[in-house]
Amino acid sequence: MTDLPGIVITGASGRMGQMLINTVLGSDKCKLVGAIERTGHDWVGRDVGEAMGGLTNGVIVTDDALEAFSRAQAVIDFTAPAATVAFSALAAQAHCVHVIGTTGMTDDDISKLGAAAHHCTIVRAGNMSLGVNLLTKITKMVAQALDDDFDIEVVEAHHNRKVDAPSGTALMLGEAAAEGRGVILADVSESGRDGITGARTRGDIGFSAIRGGDVVGEHDVMFLGDGERIILRHVASDRSLFAKGALKAALWGQTQKPGEYDMMDVLGL
């Protein structure tokens, strides 16, 4: 048991953080060695199992991320952009794998991960599920096969507590469609339709976001032509699939050289 790779979970009190903790605790391929929360959070100093309303497990929640990372082989991070950028620098110091599921990151945030990737393995993805990554690959293939006679729209739905839009997954799908078309997403993205907008610009990739209830995640990529539509869809009904994918990435990353990877690499796609 002692030689199993150690995993640290950031944002331990969040819904995803707790899901990740339970996934690691339920695995026979790794062990939980740390749980991180921000300074001043009422979980800091408590046993994470007890804080989650269960049995104690000997892992004390801490706000000292570097100390926790130094005892781990990997950290799984679904927090916020600023926190993730800071965690990447600490992961580089500790030379542990940094698995990033954080969404809403700007190009500047992502560029800052490059320095850390010289010293540690970073696996970052807008979505950790096998199905979504297959959908991403298929989206690129369909976009390559169809010309601008087909309009592309990405429609996503999430729960009413999600703070960023479009979702990281929607943007990942949009990037795949843009790559298939041989264009840059930033040049053709349209996500601000409201009022009298005029006719749709040929070649644009549109985004629509739905927020409500407890929706885990639904994504449609629509290719709309005259007289026909092709709709590619993924529906996530259980948040645990993201946690399982993240853990797979954390274990995979331990055999890789420092650098930046994504779930396509992890899944061999």
TrEMBL record:
Its EC number is 1.17.1.8. GO terms for molecular function: 4-hydroxy-tetrahydrodipicolinate reductase; NAD binding; NADP binding; oxidoreductase activity, acting on CH or CH2 groups, NAD or NADP as acceptor. The keyword NADP applies. GO terms for cellular component: cytosol. It holds the Pfam family DapB_N. Residues 7-128 form the Dihydrodipicolinate reductase N-terminal domain. Its main location: cytoplasm. The active site is at residues 158, 162. SUPFAM superfamilies: Glyceraldehyde-3-phosphate dehydrogenase-like, C-terminal domain, NAD(P)-binding Rossmann-fold domains. It comes from the Bacteria. Catalyzes the conversion of 4-hydroxy-tetrahydrodipicolinate (HTPA) to tetrahydrodipicolinate. Homotetramer. Belongs to the DapB family. This is 4-hydroxy-tetrahydrodipicolinate reductase. It comes from Pacificibacter marinus. The lineage of its organism: Bacteria, Pseudomonadati, Pseudomonadota, Alphaproteobacteria, Rhodobacterales. The gene is dapB.
